[in-house]
Amino acid sequence: MNQLLKISAVSLLTIGSFSAQAGIFHSDTLKDVQSKGSLTCGVSTGTPGFSSPDSSGHWSGVDVDVCRAVAAATLGDSNKVKFVPLTAKERFVALSSGEIDMLSRNTTWTHTRDTSLGLTFAGVNYYDGQGFMAKKSLGVNDVSELDGASFCIQAGTTTELNLADYFRSNKMSFKAVTYDTSAQTKAGFEAGRCDALTSDVSQLAGLRSTLKDPSSAVVLGNVISKEPLGPVVRKDDNTWLNIVRWSLNAMIEAEELGVTSATIDDASTSPGVQRLQGKSGKLNESLGLSKDWSRNIIAQVGNYGESFERNIGMSTPIQLPRGVNQLWIKGGILYAPAFR
Amino acid sequence: MFTKLKSLLYNNEVRAVLFQLLAVAVIAYFAYQAFDNLMLNIEQRGIRSGFGFLNDEAGFAVNDNFFLEYSPASTNLQAFYVGIVNTLMVAITGIFLASIIGLIIGIARLSNNYLIRKIATIYIEIFRNIPILLQILFWYSIALNALPSARNSINFFDTIFLNSRGLYLPKPVTGFELYIVLASFFIGVIGYVFIKKRSNKKHDETGIKTNTIPHFLGLVLLLPIVAYFVFGAQLEYPALKGFNFKGGIDLSIEFFALAFSLSVYTATYIAEAIRSGVESVDKGQKEAAAALGLKDSWAMRLVILPQALRVAIPPIINQYLNLTKNSSLAAAVGYTELVTIFSGTVLNVIGQAIEIITLTMLVYLTISLVISMILNIFNKKMQIKGN
After folding, report:
1. Antiparallel, parallel or unpaired: β A39-43 and A102-103
2. In this predicted model, what pLDDT tens digit does every residue of A117-126 receive, in sequence order?
3. pLDDT surpasses 50 at A20
4. Topology, domain A130-225
5. What are the sequence ranges of the domains in chain A?
6. Domain segments of chain B as ranges
7. Which of A96, A113, A178, A216 to mutate to test the interface with B (most CBs of B within 10 A)?
8. Residue B241 and residue A148: Cβ atoms within 8 Å?
9. Within an 8 Å CB–CB cutoff, is residue B48 touching chain A?
10. Which chain A residues touch B30 with a CB distance below 8 Å?
11. Rounded distance, CA B168 to CA B246, Å?
12. Contacts of B130 (CB under 8 A, 6+ apart)
């Protein structure tokens, strides 16, 4: 009898704790990050210029810089980031399950992703588009000449859908060979499994430069889709969404104000710069951050332009022009909402 | 009253049932809580749920498609079916090849010839001990790099083409003539089975053996060919147009690489199962067969193998199931089977991981259960009757 009682008591307790778990729901990401003392950020498994580790395991890239900016804003140290490499398939589950605090992994902002996954896009840190790389021996200059061709694509990307859409609307036929990773896609293209490779334009130049013979392939001029890439957070935490969104905006605003990591601490009479330095205004309060949050971002990570030039600009092997990713005052579409 | 209840509680039978009921209740409660917790979280995070997405437009292209209608305008459900068919095709091809290779290697392993025996052993030791994923990638890159490009395809009489993208075969055009040819093939098969049965009966009764190979050739092969020439069924030949071959049947190189590596790998286990089966047959059986004057090959075919298979079939069933499940490694080489299409592309587009992964798992479960059911029936038939 005693034993029976004991067993019942233990099972009841277990069930009780199990049911109690159901009620707890984490939605204060800022508090979690600050009590952990580090930010867990989902990045790609290695996309040069956007997020890739070097030989000593140090991550860099424009996507990585967004993670670092958020860490600088919330923890005061841009190095307190734990990077979690994720494949295209894993990324959303990792975010919605709470494995990572934010996702910054060349992810296209689409209607479906924004509305049906329980996630929210916090902004755009790179305006991309889908382009093509073809074998030079084909003598092709335009996608419209690729009717009936085979394309190597990476699985689990919007690229697959855009390609099908484009060929359907132009009444052309095609074959898609879908690989799991970007490296396999490149290998398939090199081995002649497909006539052309299609991916985001930002990645084509990088992929071409890593071919055994880069001159054997040409990047076509066509761009067939809009691919606004940006950081993503869970939908249930509005404060956290604002922190990520405004960390990115602070970097863009700083470039517009002409403030760099070298000049952020210089005395300035401009009200805009003073707000960025945290010397005036109360932009920190509603975010629950310290007064110097935006100053830390610029001092430790730099403004948007610095991040761009350091990771993917003309002085890097990726050699991407600013293009539409230029500030709105310089002819691009990069525009941070009013920083006040 | 209380003492009666107490005595009831101490009754062994009552206690056994009580504890089992309690255990079931606890497990059911845990399952319910886990499910409830899940649904709550999904709702709170605003994630779409349900199976409505199956009727949405898929929007992506699929490389391998055997006989279903599919285009990017098809629904996710159709994409799901294409995935199932592709998984089944690679599994069936793999099982067929693995059985043949396995049987040959298994018997070779027991050969009296030193060289044959050693080659079989080396084959088994090499392919059994390398992870299957590496083998798939290895054979795929060999096929990709060794075969010529589309323009320099290996050409068999202008009807069959092989290049680094796949194998292109002529395809019969469906129509009246095709059905005549198919019908004559079936008539031939039925006729042959009838003749074979009669000759077996004659053999059992009189001991006179009739050679039925001419009957086989005449009925099963010649009859459809004659029907084909008389009625003239149309074939659609593949032809190089622009970048790729068009028309005919197109089997991708990914399909071959996957089916081949799965067969080569699984065959090693089947070979070992067959060897252990043959070794389990009592030595006296072989000696008795020799005493009756049976040739070695006859003794193997008529006496040893039927008894060996009884022992070998259960482990072979396991290997067939493993092969089917291993086919999900296709994602590595881009063969578009169920996991690649459904748990890959559709999952990424739709994002409803729970529904999609559940459906995928159910398909594998069903396939595995069906295979094991069929082979269990076969196994029962093979067992010694009345023993």
Report:
1. parallel
2. 889 999 999 9
3. no
4. D-Maltodextrin-Binding Protein; domain 2 (3.40.190)
5. 29-127+229-330, 130-225
6. 2-44, 76-173+234-382
7. A178
8. yes
9. yes
10. 15, 18
11. 9
12. none
State CA B307 to chain mean position distance: 24
Give me the amino acid identity at A287: L
* B333 interaction partners in chain A (CB closer than 8 Å): 179, 184
Contact A119, A113 (CB under 8 A): yes
* Fold of the domain built from segment(s) A29-127+229-330: D-Maltodextrin-Binding Protein; domain 2 (3.40.190)
A106-143 as b/e, with b when 16 or more CB fall inside 10 Å? bbbbbeebeebbbbbbbbbbbbbbbbbbbbeeeebeeb
Instruction: Using a cut of 0.90, tell me whether the model's pTM lies above it.
Output: no
Please state, in angstroms and as integers, the Cα–Cα distance from residue B105 to each residue in B127, B213, B224, B263, following that order. Answer: 12, 26, 34, 12
Q: Which run of H or of E encompasses A248? A: helix A238-257
Closest CA to B212 of B225, B187, B190, B195: B195
**End-to-end Cα separation, chain A, in angstroms:** 71
* Residue among B90, B88, B94 at smallest CA distance from B266: B94
CA dihedral A159, A133, B254, B173 (to 10 degrees): 90
Amino acid at A1: M
Is the CB of residue A261 less than 8 Å from the CB of residue A298?
yes
Angle (CA) B179 B182 B188, round 5°: 140
The C-alpha atoms of residue B135 and residue B141 are separated, in whole angstroms, by 10
CATH topology of domain B76-173+234-382: MetI-like fold (1.10.3720)
Which of chain A's residues have a Cβ under 8 Å away from the Cβ of B37?
21-22
Least confident of A243-257, B57-71, B212-226: B212-226
Residue B298 tokens read as 């006859």
Q: How far is CA B289 from CA A249, B285, B303, in A?
A: 87, 6, 7
Residue with tokens 């919007």: A158
Helix (H) or strand (E) holding B271: helix B253-280
Residue B377 CB partners (closer than 8 Å, separation 6+): none
- Kindly report the length of chain A: 340
A10-19, A94-103, A290-299, B145-154: segment of lowest average pLDDT: A10-19
Under DSSP, is residue A180 helix (H, G, I), strand (E, B) or coil? Answer: coil
Distance CA A84, CA A218 (A): 33
Task: Give A209's Cβ-side CA count (13 Å radius).
Answer: 13
**Three-state DSSP class for B274?**
helix
H-helix or E-strand spanning residue B249: strand B249-252
Q: What is the ipTM of this complex?
A: 0.72
Looking at residue B330, what DSSP letter applies?
G
Query: In angstroms, rounded to a whole number, what is the distance separating the alpha carbons of residues A163 and A152?
Result: 11
